[in-house]
Write a structure and sequence with these properties.
Blueprint lengths: L21 H10 L2 E6 L7 H14 L3 E5 L2 H7 L2 E4 L26 H13 L4 E6 L1 H14 L3 E5 L15 H22 L2 E6 L6 H9 L4 E3 L6 H8 L11 E6 L6 H11 L5 E5 L11 H20 L4 E6 L2 E6 H6 L6 H4 L2 H4 L2
Parallel strand pairs: 1-2, 1-4, 4-5, 5-10, 6-8, 6-9, 7-8
Antiparallel strand pairs: 2-3, 10-11
Length: 353
């Protein structure tokens, strides 16, 4: 991950400061003529819905919106196109991102960021909206400190692990995709009296694993935040009360205990009588048409992000907390860890009986 260190320091806009109003807001709409948007990091369903909202909000406010292709790499290499209403028509239902995405090693260097600044300066771009995760936010924060380009971040990741928002773009769709897969696996598990271990994404965060485990009726859920869960899994198959259920679904976060294959090996060693199968859902969770909830979320966040930028916002990310738009500084969003809801975590033991 990029470091937040920089030779220059600038005051970060406080989310509690009053927003610009009335005449000043209208003046700012007139002075900011051109902004750019891009997607970075892993793709997530709903990114296109957000792009659509950003472009059309810009048109509404007479602000020209440029699209940067291929994330920070495209910013460095000058891959910039003008976006209009027609170009973002018929994309709200599409998965992935029409602007493409990448993880840029060159942007991690000062020289790479300087190239990106020169490209934006040449194209008369006054501010940027970045759709992505922590790495995207980090890069945008450093970029402002060094070159003064204001930016607003929009949370686009299926992992739902970004601080400053209850839900990230793509999370709901990923949950539904994983749940549908588990429902299908359950049919085979039941037919053959097997134990199926299903690996979902979430190397450092258990949001997907916990939610899909609850929704999919899993007997056990293994996630990074709960280090007692492997012993809990062993105890599930060690019960002496003659558990009647002949099959089980176990959800495993991809980074937990070395992943699903290692967990399956350990479980087989402890209980050789079990017929165990493993399934890794992988990148299927990132694809597909976004759910209605993700489309609405992406649209709300996109409209708010563009308006915040042209109001004068900088070094902030937009989010939805208790169904209200909320802005959090990049520094806070990057440094704070988003906790799992304890009331849901506490249900897993009760539901495994």
């Amino acid at each position: 991950m990029l470091s937040l260190s920089s030779k220059k320091s600038n005051k970060i806009l406080n989310k509690n400061e009053p927003r610009f109003g009335g005449a000043f807001l209208c003046l700012y709409f007139k002075t900011m003529k051109k902004v750019a948007i891009f997607t970075s990091g892993g793709d997530a369903p709903g990114m296109n819905a957000c792009i659509r909202a950003l472009v059309r909000t810009g048109i509404y406010h007479n602000v020209k919106v440029m699209g940067i292709m291929n994330g920070y790499d495209g910013m460095i290499n000058g891959q910039i196109v003008e976006l209009d209403s027609a170009q973002v028509g018929n994309i709200i239902q599409r998965g992935g991102t029409i602007l493409k995405s990448s993880r840029s090693e060159e942007f991690r260097t000062y020289e790479g960021r300087k190239k990106a600044f020169e490209v934006l300066k040449k194209n008369e771009i006054e501010g940027i909206v970045c759709i992505g995760g922590n790495g995207t936010y980090t890069g945008a924060g450093i970029f402002y400190e060094e070159f003064g380009i204001p930016s607003i971040g929009v949370p686009g990741t299926i992992d739902n692990d970004l601080y400053g928002t209850d839900q990230t773009i793509g999370y709901d769709t990923a949950l539904n995709t994983a749940m549908e897969a588990i429902d299908k696996i359950r049919d085979t598990a039941d037919s053959h009296n097997r134990v199926f271990l299903v690996e979902v994404m979430g190397r450092d965060s258990g949001f997907i694993g916990l939610a899909v485990g609850i929704a999919g009726g899993a007997e056990s859920i293994l996630i990074p935040e709960d280090h007692k869960d492997l012993e809990r899994l062993y105890s599930l198959f060690s019960k002496k009360d003659g558990r009647q259920k002949a099959f089980s679904i176990i959800v495993v976060a991809e980074g937990e205990e070395g992943g699903v294959l290692k967990v399956a090996s350990q479980l087989k060693e402890r209980f050789p009588q079990l017929d165990i199968r493993s399934t890794i859902l992988g990148h299927i969770q990132r694809g597909g048409s976004p759910s209605a909830r993700d489309r609405i979320l992406a649209t709300r966040l996109g409209v708010s992000a563009l308006e915040r930028l042209i109001e004068g916002g900088k070094n902030e990310c937009v989010g939805l907390i208790n169904n209200n738009i909320h802005f959090t500084s990049f520094k806070e969003a990057i440094s704070k860890r988003k906790p799992l809801p304890k009331y849901i975590l506490g249900m897993t033991d009760k539901l495994s009986v």
